[in-house]
Amino acid sequence: MKIAVDVMGGDYAPSAIIEGTAIALKDFSDIELVLVGHLGKISFYLEKFGLARHPRVSLVHAEEVVEMKDASIVTLRSKKNSSISVAARLMKNGEVDAIVSVGHTGAAVAATNVIVKPLPGVDRAPLASVMPAIGGHFILLDAGANTDCKALHLAQFAIMGETYCKHILGVENPTVGLLSIGEEDSKGNDLTKEAFKLLSKMPINFAGNVEGNDLFIKTTDVVVCDGFVGNVLIKACESLAGAINHWMKDVFTKNPVRKTGAILARSAFKDLKAIADAEEYGGIPLLGLNGICIIGHGSSNPKAVRNAIRTCTESVRKRINEKIMARIEESGMTFKNIQSSEAN
Amino acid sequence: MKIAVDVMGGDYAPSAIIEGTAIALKDFSDIELVLVGHLGKISFYLEKFGLARHPRVSLVHAEEVVEMKDASIVTLRSKKNSSISVAARLMKNGEVDAIVSVGHTGAAVAATNVIVKPLPGVDRAPLASVMPAIGGHFILLDAGANTDCKALHLAQFAIMGETYCKHILGVENPTVGLLSIGEEDSKGNDLTKEAFKLLSKMPINFAGNVEGNDLFIKTTDVVVCDGFVGNVLIKACESLAGAINHWMKDVFTKNPVRKTGAILARSAFKDLKAIADAEEYGGIPLLGLNGICIIGHGSSNPKAVRNAIRTCTESVRKRINEKIMARIEESGMTFKNIQSSEAN
User: Fold this and answer.
1) B 114-173 residues with CB below 8 A of A?
2) Three-state DSSP state, B172
3) Can you tell me the ipTM of this complex?
């Protein structure tokens, strides 16, 4: 199994990324890694983490680096030799099975969609984020890859989410919810009302609308929404969790008694942090592409990179893409099908 | 000043609502309240809280009650004599200056929009939610009144939010942000990209796009979005805060040492709760209607009802509607204007 790692992207690149690949190589003996980046800029770190002459590491030079401020689609055209574009071409040519990137999400989405392309039957590749909730995790998709969606896209997201949930997370017969603003099928916006009708007809375990207030008590295993809503939501929740953390520090240090209490209970704060710990999840898959692509958080540390690589290996080993293609076909939710049924 | 209170809606109706009105009558000597509800069902509580023969209380009978499971628009037609519809008619006829309801939000939005109608120049009335953030509060609107919006609606929300923020919350020259998924004007969905152009031309302090991750560090005083996104967001954040609270209880009671710590720091937990305490905010205004309408949380207790009435008095006293009309006119952001500029 060959995995390309974009070592140039992310807040702590290339050091944290390269260190993470070194850990992954130790932990997973059946993988080969192709590190894609500016060789001049990474050689120091390759030496430092013992990867310069590693038997399971090959290096591919990428002259350009995508900056966080770059616009995704412009990057694709103006920086043809960016590390993410080079990695995408390796995947397109069948030289690697999977890609890991913790850099500019938009650039990774654009490069893989344009260069690697979606699977047959898939119209849009969604980002599937695993989220913590009371009573277990749920998958939210699309977490930000596609801003303006049609009902068919949401239907396909449902299938991809359900398939991922079943085969990668091991959930038997996963339930699927549609993110909306009321439980009844009459509630929602034009998009969700249309999607509700499609989802109701599909051979999935559709549980109807899921409201925002039910999200973190885990109402369904999979929650479907468009990428604008998903992205705003995930980022806002991250922001709120950060604010609560800030307020906690504030209130627990206000006087010596509280401080003593906080010291006694300090391991509780650690437990609390661990619940939402992004490092553990190992990145967010961009589902439905002609190859496996895992996107990590920009702030990924070595452990998070190692876990993103682990997520890749699971997806490759369990042939998730074959399963997605089969399920999409089975569901009849392809553009061709919908078009011909509308023509009749 | 006359305020109609729908005493039938909400999780703890009519008891908590009537108790709240009794507190408001004591605290605000210049108000008269019109309690709208099923007189047979509320007489016990009127006696209990000393309102049966109160000089500043009048009673209006409403035969029907909107249930939480009722669909908003159906309710309006099939339950013409629901407490919220009766209250809306009182406002339409100029018999009251304001309405308070903590019941079915959708029903209140529908009844006031259809019966009371928006102000001249306003096309959609948004719910404006005051949210806590590090560094102060911000107003998010629309928080759920209008699911499918056009750019012009968002532009009008911006003006209404800015006007409310200035005159009611006392913020000099409030900044306005557009909720989106990237800072640049090129980022977002079709709606926000279009809205970005309008907002940039307006005589407001527009600060550009605000991302989800900036929300709770207070990037701007006002944040504008469509009602679907706003509603999902607010409810999801409420749900996440609830989940974090649940996890906190979990981790702080895991062993005796942590428990002792938690007991020492127990006042800190109270402080933390107070930050997000919905009771304090006194309900969410439904802005841009021919009258003042304040919607409270379904779980409103007497204090929250009292504060919702307080919010009403501020809006009436500060003639917020006149200011909104003037600002909408000034901005040129009316449907008529936009239409004629498109025709030219």
Assistant:
1) 132-134, 144, 147-148
2) coil
3) 0.91
Number of domains in chain B: 2
Instruction: Locate the chain B residue with the closest alpha carbon to A258.
Output: B265
Is A165 in the same domain as A239?
yes
Put simply, the answer to whether A268 touches B251 (Cβ < 8 Å) is yes
B344 occurs within a structural domain? no
Parent domain of A265: 128-277
Q: Is A275 on the interface with B (CB under 8 A)?
A: yes
Tell if the CB–CB gap between B215 and A239 is shorter than 8 Å.
Answer: yes
pLDDT in tens, B55-93: 999 999 999 888 877 777 777 777 888 999 999 999 999
Would you give the DSSP letter of residue A231? H
Predicted confidence (pLDDT) per residue in A145-158, tens digit: 999 999 999 999 99
Tell whether omega for the bond before A14 is within 30 degrees of 0, i.e. cis.
Answer: yes
Shortest Cα–Cα distance, A335 to chain B (Å): 22
User: Of A242, A260, A277, which residue constitutes the final position of a domain?
Assistant: A277
CB contact under 8 A, B233 and A236: yes
Of residues A190, A215, A233, nearest to B148 (C-beta): A190
Residue B330 forms part of a structural domain: no
A38 confidence band (pLDDT: 50, 70, 90): very high
The beta strand positions in B20-94, using DSSP E, are 32-37, 57-61
* DSSP 3-state of A259: helix
CB atoms within 10 A of CB B329: 14
Q: Does the global pTM surpass 0.80? A: yes
The position carrying tokens 């969604």 is A126
The answer on pLDDT for B101 being more than 90 is yes
